[in-house]
Amino acid sequence: MALLVLLVNDVSSVFLYGLIIAVMVSLPRYWLVSAGAESKNSYTITGIPQQLLTLLKTRWRAWLFLINGPAIIQNGYDKSNEQPYEVFSPDNRYVFVSKDEHIMEIDAAPDTVLSLQAASKQMLQPKYTMAGFNWFDRRGTEGIGFVRALRTLLTNNLPEVLPELRISASSLMDEMHASHPVVNDVKQSPLLPMILHLTALTNARAFFGQELCRNEDFMRSAMNFIEQTLALAEMIRLLPNSIAPMVGRALGKKLRSQKEIYKAMIPIAEERLRLKEQKRLGHEVPVHHDCIQWIMETAPRAQPWSADRIVHELMAIWFGSVHVMTTTIAFAMHDLCLHPEYAASLRAELNSEAYAEFEKNGKGLPLLDSFIKESARLTPVESMSTRRQAIQPFTFSDGTHLAIGDWVVTPLRAMLHDDTHFPSASSFHGFRHVHPQVLENLTHSKFGSLDTQEPSQLTDVNKHWHVWGTGRMACPGRYYAAAAMKTIIGQFVLKYDSSLVDETESRFISWRSFIYPRSRTKAVLKPVVAKS
Ligand code: HEM
């Protein structure tokens, strides 16, 4: 997503120049240091050191990972026979594991050895992209209250927010649709920007409450923050360690969104801390139901978080959630456009009493649940899951070794496309995850199902479905994410018959292990005509 936008906005030149510098300084660095150190007795007939050639080949493949990551991971998986295999990127050695035993060993490893936080820190470079947030590599150093804040409190609050989210998403959708241009007699809607706005609005309400989500400047910065974080973090990752901090600091200062959202949230977090203190002293204070409040309340009692720490945490959660929800919804919308034959059943479900039930507990709508799950299965945004960086050396029981800095991951996309996990894995069956009896009761047909597929739900976490991660660190925001995605996609289904302006045009762009929907993809959203 961001990479395409980068081509047309002011971050583009920063990123492009950064990438060129990174390639130029990285290749000679490995050439001189590593090749020179090991080049005894290794000359080819032409006089070129053999090890230098091997090294250049390895580095070339590592750089290719940036533009061909999903295929390289798939290729390794196809050859691996479920055994661990390694893949290199310019800045990483990844060890891919897919067997249950390995995944259990990852989950059992202490946070001081295999760290999700360290991997995320390398990915996002928060020190430069998130107003100086330099989180600890070790999970839990400052408490893991955020897990309860998202997994329990945000989930429990769904009945409160879902009706509000539906109403705001519906009116924003109408507004945006009305503003889209008519080209060749057809109103064309740019899907990705539209979905980014809808996701940002929805998440802003749930995370920050009404106050901030009505602030247009804040919302603009909060959306720009996603693209700017991706671009800057990527560039810093590709630079040699010796110059990355200097370049990171200089460019971080140029990207304003991080400062703007930090500045807007700090007074609110300070006010909440003041109210907390007032309450402690026995005063009556207003009650708030949003993530700012829950993050503050679930911080360790012994070491309460400062306003700065609360805001940093929210910035990280904001980035992670908006980015992946936007891209997942975008792919689900592509699938809705490509498979319009599902619209009638989905609409019937959304128009039934089941919708009111869904808004009461955030669960249900099995047809929509399955449709989104099938879309995320065939077109996952990510090709790897369960990222853990070794902050101490680690050896699996079969001898597979991780040195400090290596990552262990699971080959998410390849597993989702593997017939042993999902029968007829390469074909789209929108209702394959629905229980056959439920499908029969709701649609009086077997359309979209697959006899050989076990029923399951979008929010499951198991050996077939690593989309939310695995084990004890599986995504705590998944119940909220699933309900919010159903709310947004549900509004599209109810309002429009959707199709793509050009089905033959490329809809993806690949970078590292991600596949992003292109921002230029346009849809024709034709208002649904009510049947008389
Ligand atoms: C489609 C949407 C989403 C997807 C696919 C997703 C996926 C993931 C994945 C793969 C992980 C890593 C788990 C692991 O490595 O084992 C994760 C962690 C996390 N996610 Fe999500 N996520 C989504 C939405 C959200 C939302 C909406 C929130 C917040 C409300 C959220 C908050 C978090 C947090 C805080 C963690 C870190 C957990 C920890 O450190 O224990 N995610 N997510």
TrEMBL record:
The keyword Glycoprotein does not apply. It comes from the Eukaryota. Its cofactor is heme. GO terms for molecular function: heme binding; iron ion binding; monooxygenase activity; oxidoreductase activity, acting on paired donors, with incorporation or reduction of molecular oxygen. It is found in: Membrane. SUPFAM superfamilies: Cytochrome P450. Heme binds at C475. One of its GO terms (cellular component) is membrane. It holds the Pfam family p450. The keyword Phosphoprotein does not apply. Keywords: Heme, Iron, Membrane, Metal-binding, Monooxygenase, Oxidoreductase, Transmembrane, Transmembrane helix. The chain crosses the membrane at residues 14-32. Its main location: membrane. Belongs to the cytochrome P450 family. This is Cytochrome P450. The lineage of its organism: Eukaryota, Fungi, Dikarya, Ascomycota, Pezizomycotina.
